[in-house]
Amino acid sequence: MTDVNQSPRTILTYGTFDLFHIGHLRILERARALGDRLVVGVSTDGFNATKGKKSVIPFEHRRDIVAALRCVDLVIPEENWEQKIDDIRRHGVRVFAMGDDWQGRFDFLAEYCEVCYLSRTPEISTTAIKTDLEPERRDHLEAVTREVG
């Protein structure tokens, strides 16, 4: 896809990627298909706390899972909302891609690169998985995750 006289077409996306599932994989594969290189910002536990979110899987594990995927070229920590413009510049990003549940929220980045909203995989989300888990199973999953971490 890269012409000899052009730099790689770098794509950037962000996410928490808790309880990694097929929807996560599919959106990362679709983002990677937009270019030659995929940079993924994984939300840190501290950043999630500022958003009122708590991940079951700790940041270091989520980061390592995402980094192990064939479609991912680089993983960076997402530590705050404001870092996106700096990340676009630092990594030479040509396309910023997010799930369409964020439609319109990142249009301001069009000044720096192309902004693309990708359709999500229907009927799957981390929120739905967490909701479906019985409270005892959720407590067990969190306990096991703490032991492994």
Helix/strand-derived class? alpha/beta
Strand order of the largest sheet: 3-2-1-4-5
Biggest sheet overview: 5 strands, parallel
Number of strands: 5
Query: Would you identify the regions where 5 or more consecutive residues have pLDDT less than 50?
Result: none
Q: Please tell me the overall pLDDT.
A: 88
Q: What is the overall number of helices?
A: 6
Question: What is the alpha-carbon Rg in Å?
Answer: 16 Å
Termini separation: 39 Å
Helix content: 25-40%
**H and E order:** EHEHHEHEEHH
**Proportion of residues in β-strands:** 15-25%
Gross geometry: globular
Can you walk me through this structure?
The protein has 149 residues and is an alpha/beta fold. Helices cover 36% and strands 20% of the residues. A 5-stranded parallel beta sheet has the order 3-2-1-4-5, sandwiched between helices. The longest helix has 14 residues, at 135-148. The model has no long low-confidence stretch (mean pLDDT 88).
List keywords for this structure.
149 residues, alpha/beta, five-stranded parallel beta sheet
Chain-wise SSE layout:
Layout: E1 10-15, H1 22-32, E2 37-43, H2 45-50, H3 59-67, E3 74-78, H4 84-90, E4 93-99, E5 114-118, H5 126-132, H6 135-148
